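Worked example 3. Consider a protein that binds 2-acetamido-2-deoxy-beta-D-glucopyranose.
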Amino acid sequence: MGVCLLGSESSGNRRAWIVHSLLVGAAVAAAAAAHLGLLRRLLRRGGSRSRVVGIIPARFASSRFHGKPLVHILGKPMIQRTWERAKMASSLDHVVVATDDERIVECCKGFGADVIMTSEACQNGTERCNEALGKLGKDYDVVVNIQGDEPLIEPEIINGIVKALQAAPDAVFSTAVAPLKPEDGTDPNRVKCIVDKQGYAIYFSRGLIPYNKSGKANQHFPYLLHLGIQSYDAKFLNLYTKLPPTPLQLEEDLEQLKVLENGYKMRVIKVDHDAHGVDTPEDVEKIEALMREWNIS
Ligand SMILES: *[C@@H]1O[C@H](CO)[C@@H](O)[C@H](O)[C@H]1NC(C)=O
Ligand SMILES: *[C@@H]1O[C@H](CO)[C@@H](O)[C@H](O)[C@H]1NC(C)=O
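Given these inputs, the predicted complex is written out as structure tokens:
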């Protein structure tokens, strides 16, 4: 598979800031110098974002699939498969499972994973990641939210979104998209994404975007499918879970829209990868068939 960054990073804004700081008059030179020092430190930290943790949120009771993280896929629990993939990502300093259930804790300890117990009250994976981050007792700059139900996630995709966020200090969030088959264009469960020329997200929708005036999916347009994986600036993650829901987020039932509606920037990388999420027991058979075909054991 290939990972390519959409657009290129720009350091223009940073330079403008520093030039602005330098223009402060001589009378306040001392203050300006202190300000500049602080700014540089912030930029250096924002620019490096070097300490990275991968968190796999895993809830036991899912409405569509009870005990989903523990279902066996070709003889191994799904959560173990996801964890093994995540461990292969060189950009992660640490990988941890965050769960609300003792059965998942036991299972994870069995194959050697670090686990953090989180509250049953967490409404979604993002909240669970945030709670786990607070309980880690170590500082991280970037958090990757790795969905437990994507057992074939590519380590290169994890590395790709981490690098994208590290290279874009003006973004607080990064995620990945893959080519969308035009016949999936009208499936509301396939979330579509559009990006600007610099590789920042413009919008996500369950509807087909962009929309062709013929009223049909254009076979020749490179539509983009959103993959569930995402990474956040660690300080932003805390704020993200506290920001109240926004109108477009509620209407589309897509939590990432809250980021864009609040004016934050999101970096998007384009990858060649088919999503093979496990939502229902039927999906397990599909994914096992695929793994046999690809000789993955
Ligand atoms: C819309 O889709 C058709 C059919 O694929 C294509 O020929 C056309 O260029 C697209 N764009 C517009 C503006 O019609
Ligand atoms: C998670 O769930 C809460 C409660 O339903 C919701 O307010 C929030 O927008 C969701 N997303 C995030 C990122 O917190």
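Take a moment to read the result before moving on. The chain has a mean pLDDT of 86. The CA atoms of residues 26 and 209 lie 52 Å apart.
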